[in-house]
Design goal:
The complex is a heterodimer of chains A (120) and B (419). With 120 residues, chain A is an alpha+beta fold. Chain A is 34% helix and 34% strand. Chain A is built from four helices and six strands, in the order βααββββααβ. A four-stranded antiparallel sheet of chain A has the order 2-5-1-6. A two-stranded antiparallel ribbon of chain A has the order 3-4. Chain B is mainly α. Chain B is built from 18 helices and no strands. In chain B, helix 5 packs across helix 7 and helix 9 runs antiparallel to helix 10. Chain B is elongated. Chain B starts with a helix and ends with a helix. Classes of the chains: A alpha+beta (120), B mainly alpha (419). At the A-B interface, helix 2 and strand 2 of A face helix 5, helix 7, helix 8, helix 16 and helix 18 of B.
């Protein structure tokens, strides 16, 4: 089963962390990525630029409106994602509990939809 | 067949034979497997241009052997540089054929290799990947695209599986008689998983993935040729053929799923059905019964009905009762309940489903809600059906299944609006 890990963060609060705390976050992420790559579970992932770099696009009655900033107003934002394939949801959740952002904010584990299906 | 297809077919057939000889000659499954892949690649590139050599198996062996020799030499040189004893290559492991290598081309290592690749010490994912590469002769990139993961991910899974074989010292030999039945069960399960991966994907535009069904059938056919008296091998092959026979009818051109009862049966593959039916009939008449044979027999009963309403449901109920006795699991109960509903009415089917609510393996699975929805609809309880369809649609992780379930739900509300 393929899962996506959605990583949430409060960018302002992250900046307020000490250098040492931030280094631990980066090191933890490196460790998990290395482990998932070696186990053949890692599929891919990226960090996202700061929410302030977002363009939100809405089309109403065929007219597009483009505004600066995120769609949802919140202090916490999606700051990155990664995808992996593992045996079951227990393993996926276990990976999520070690993701450092889960200690400060939250990460979500979401199963990916697949194009496969069987007749009922 | 075009030359490329002929070459590919030949290479895939020879792959396990060549690998078997290499492993017996050199030991070291991991390195031999790499050498075999390189030889396959060289042949796939060269043969369509230069023509197929007179002795293709010998050609592959020579090329793969040369790779092995090169690799062993460079490893020896490296060890010397590291000032260590080159103990790994004993003096007598000469590169001349060892006894037993000069066997006839008919000799087939396919089974031994399958047992190795499907060793219980490996995870299912590793078993599948390794089987497709070492026995099926597929490249890592082909396997990766079949499973929709990056090539690097699949390469790492294969590398790890090979490391594990090396580390645990799994031998390249037939399992002892006592454990052979159990080990064969694992092999068949891996082939079944490969088939399912391809079959469930054949609804979408992923033709690459649909090739997995063909590959699973090809490998199962090879096992059946080697073990013609094993009823479960025959049963699995029959089940695959009978299931795959419905391929053209199970989706609309836009990818929408068509349930069994609504399929255009003229699109079913009659040839595959005939072969499947005769395989399972023969197996049931002369070998001990097993789960694959019963599942194939159920598929055969469906295949024999010219129209959905001609289906011999009482016989299907009897087969599910037998299947539940010898290999009970909640998915079988689910299908059994559908058959019971067709014979005794939807309420009897719904009553059977209640027993699954306490079963953690399936209680929150979309299939339970989907079956319940269909049975409520059959019973005329549209409100309950609608609610179950919607729950099922939210629980499935399959796009075509979600679309199908949402469509069923929408049809119900549509119909009720018109009454």
């Amino acid at each position: 089963m393929k899962y996506m890990l959605l990583i949430y963060q409060n960018p302002a609060a992250f900046q307020a962390l000490s250098e040492e705390e931030r280094n631990v976050v980066f090191a933890d992420v490196d460790t998990i990525m290395k482990e998932l790559t070696e186990s053949g579970e890692w599929i891919g992932g990226d960090g996202l630029a700061d929410p302030s770099q977002t363009k939100t696009v809405k089309v109403r009655d065929g007219v597009p409106a483009v505004t600066d900033g995120p769609y949802l107003e919140a202090k916490e934002h999606l700051v990155g994602y990664c995808m992996f394939e593992c045996e079951n949801i227990e393993r996926a959740t276990e990976i999520a509990t070690r993701w450092p952002d889960a200690r400060y904010w939250a990460v979500e584990v979401r199963p990916l939809m697949s194009a496969a299906g069987t007749e009922m | 067949m075009k030359t490329d297809a002929i070459v590919e077919d030949l290479l895939r057939r020879l792959a396990p034979q060549v690998l078997g000889v290499l492993v017996r000659r050199h030991g070291r499954f991991d390195a031999c497997e790499d050498a075999m892949q390189e030889a396959l690649l060289a042949a796939a590139v060269g043969w369509p241009e230069e023509g197929i050599p007179e002795n293709p198996r010998g050609w592959l062996l020579t090329v793969a052997d040369r790779r092995m020799t090169d690799q062993l030499r460079s490893e020896q040189a490296r060890r010397r540089r590291e000032d260590r004893v080159a103990a790994e290559v004993p003096a007598d492991s000469s590169f001349a054929p060892a006894p037993g290598d000069d066997q006839s081309p008919e000799h087939d290592d396919t089974l031994t290799l399958l047992f190795l690749c499907c060793h219980p010490a490996l995870s299912p994912g590793a078993q599948i990947a390794l089987t497709l590469r070492a026995v099926g002769g597929l490249t890592t990139s082909e396997i990766a695209s079949a499973f929709l993961v990056p090539e690097a991910t699949m390469a790492q899974r294969i590398r790890r599986a090979k490391q594990r074989i090396k580390a645990t010292g799994i031998p390249f030999s037939m399992p002892a008689e006592a454990e052979r039945v159990e080990r064969l069960r694992v092999v068949l399960h891996v082939l079944y998983l490969i088939f399912n991966e391809g079959y469930s994907a054949s609804s979408g535009p992923d033709l690459q993935r649909a090739d997995l069904t063909r590959e699973a059938i090809r490998l199962t056919r090879a096992v059946h040729r080697l073990l013609p008296d094993d009823g479960e091998v025959a049963g699995l092959l029959a089940l695959m053929l009978l299931t795959d026979a419905r391929r053209a009818a199970r989706t609309l051109p836009d990818g929408a799923l068509v349930p069994l009862a609504e399929q255009d049966r003229s699109l079913w593959n009659g040839e595959a059905i005939q072969e499947g039916i005769s395989l399972v009939t023969d197996a049931l008449s002369r070998t001990p019964v097993g789960p694959y044979q019963i599942q194939a027999a159920i598929a055969a009963v469906h295949a024999e009905a010219a129209r959905a309403e001609d289906t011999d449901w009482p016989q299907i109920v009897a087969l599910y009762e037998l299947l539940e006795r010898i290999s009970p699991n909640p998915v079988i109960t689910l299908n059994h309940a559908v058959a019971v509903a067709m014979v005794q009415g939807p309420r009897a089917g719904l009553d059977m489903l209640d027993s699954l609510d306490g079963d953690d393996r399936i209680a929150r699975h979309h299939r339970l809600d989907a079956v319940r929805a269909h049975l409520f609809e059959m019973a005329g309880d549209h409100a309950a059906a609608l609610s179950s369809y919607r729950i099922a649609a939210r629980r499935t992780t399959s796009l075509p299944e979600r679309r199908y379930l949402e469509t069923r739900a929408a049809r119900l509300t549509e119909r009720d609006r018109h009454i």
